[in-house]
Specification:
Length: 211
């Protein structure tokens, strides 16, 4: 297990442009909260890999655990600073399946068809993890239990909740919000919020729904 301090650089404590600190930890997603059944849940890893894998819940939780201290920035302008995430490093998952040299992108697949795409180098960053707990407490269902991706250096729609699959890909494909006008790269420090500007000269109107 890696020491927390080694990974503390994932949190800058600073606000990217146009962001404000949230009160608490807001809940934001499209659609209903999916039910979780430990008996039927699994996590599938496939695509351009040598050894496709299927992890059951207990198998996931038996993998080596990491903690990452990192900030969280939603495109709707709230940020949650200084979270201690707990879960499994993406590297650990990748080592199970051995991605082929052709892999340059990945898609994270979630319950109910939500998905999000990332370049391989972004996914493999040291502060990216598949998480199940924050600040010492397992997520409530609304925050993505039993498993969500955390990508601290990208807007939080890439931090997909209720993950059920990871697909390694040679070519890029757009995920759920990327198809609906959000920026493919989504770097909050560069304010890469939307891929298009509307005729009114304002950013696109698509917004996640607050529940
Ligand atoms: N499966 C799924 N994951 C999702 C979303 C979603 O609609 N469905 N919304 C994203 C968005 S836009 C944000 S800001 C974060 C919010 O996470 P939180 O509710 O834990 O704060 O979840 C992301 N992950
Ligand atoms: Mo978001």
């Amino acid at each position: 297990m890696r020491a927390e301090s080694e990974l503390a650089a994932g949190a800058t404590g600073a606000l990217p442009p146009g962001q404000r600190p949230a009160k608490g930890w807001p809940v934001l997603h499209y659609g209903p909260i999916p039910p979780f059944d430990v008996a039927t849940w699994d996590f599938r890893i496939w695509g351009e890999v040598e050894h496709p894998a299927l992890l059951l819940y207990d198998e996931l939780r038996a993998l080596p655990m990491v903690k990452v201290l990192a900030d969280f920035h939603c495109v709707t302008r709230f940020s949650v600073l200084g979270n201690e995430w707990e879960g499994v490093a993406v590297r650990t998952i990748a080592d199970l399946v051995a991605p082929t040299p052709s892999v340059r992108f990945a898609m994270v697949h979630c319950e109910q068809g939500y998905d999000a795409n990332l370049p391989l180098d972004v996914l493999m960053d040291d502060d990216v993890l598949f998480a199940w707990a924050r600040n010492g407490a397992e997520f409530e269902p609304m925050h993505g239990f039993p498993l969500r991706l955390i990508v601290p250096k990208r807007y939080a729609w890439k931090s997909a909740k209720w993950v059920r699959g990871l697909e390694f890909m040679a070519e890029d494909r757009l995920g759920f919000w990327e198809e609906r006008g959000y920026h493919n790269d989504a770097d909050p420090w560069q304010e890469q919020r939307y891929s298009t500007v509307s005729a009114l000269g304002r950013p696109g109107q698509l917004r996640p729904r607050m529940v």
